[in-house]
């Protein structure tokens, strides 16, 4: 009886480490989003780079999500954009790029009632713009999350009524990209 129990345990633990590739994206460094540990309509999501795999929000409990949208966008600078319903009372997500001249991937995190609709990419800055639709902590039309390349400790969030200037940026309409992604399924 003991060998059977050991075999069942070994099979169950080996399956728990089998991760499903959800999306791969080369942002100047190859990245992938993988998931495992399905419960109802949720999975635990991981960011995989090289041989290293880590939960997208630090630990597995915070990285359990549903309704997750993953996009690989950009022409001159590539970006991985992930958003979904994780543990916060909002849609959480992040943008990862690896701009030319940067030694490590750059990450910008966000959390709002809606997904970002526009992404502004340049060699020096990432801006994710989220429409507020009248909800949230501001009466402004948009919330803009800013990340300056090489300075993660100075990320900021601004409430704005007009979209940022496109000068010097590649501007990506994520909503349009998402429609194209879903049409291709």
TrEMBL record:
Top-rank taxon: Bacteria
Keyword terms: Signal
Region forming the signal peptide: 1-18
Name of this protein: SPOR domain-containing protein
Species, as recorded: Duganella vulcania
Highest classification ranks of the organism: Bacteria, Pseudomonadati, Pseudomonadota, Betaproteobacteria, Burkholderiales
């Amino acid at each position: 009886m003991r060998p059977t129990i050991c075999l069942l345990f070994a099979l169950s633990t080996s399956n728990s480490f089998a991760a499903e590739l959800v999306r791969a994206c080369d942002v100047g460094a190859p990245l992938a989003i993988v998931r495992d540990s399905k419960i109802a309509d949720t999975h635990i999501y991981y960011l995989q780079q090289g041989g290293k795999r880590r939960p997208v929000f630090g630990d597995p409990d915070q990285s359990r999500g549903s309704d997750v949208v993953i996009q690989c966008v950009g022409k001159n600078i590539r970006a991985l954009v992930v958003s979904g319903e994780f543990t916060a009372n909002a849609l959480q997500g992040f943008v990862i790029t690896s701009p030319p001249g940067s030694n490590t991937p750059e990450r910008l995190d966000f959390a709002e009632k809606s997904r970002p609709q526009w992404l502004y990419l340049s060699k020096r800055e990432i801006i994710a713009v989220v429409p507020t639709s009248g909800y949230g902590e501001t009466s402004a039309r948009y919330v803009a999350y800013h990340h300056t390349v090489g300075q993660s400790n100075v990320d900021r969030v601004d409430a704005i009524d007009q979209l940022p200037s496109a000068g010097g940026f590649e501007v990506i309409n994520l909503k349009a990209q998402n429609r194209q992604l879903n049409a291709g399924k």
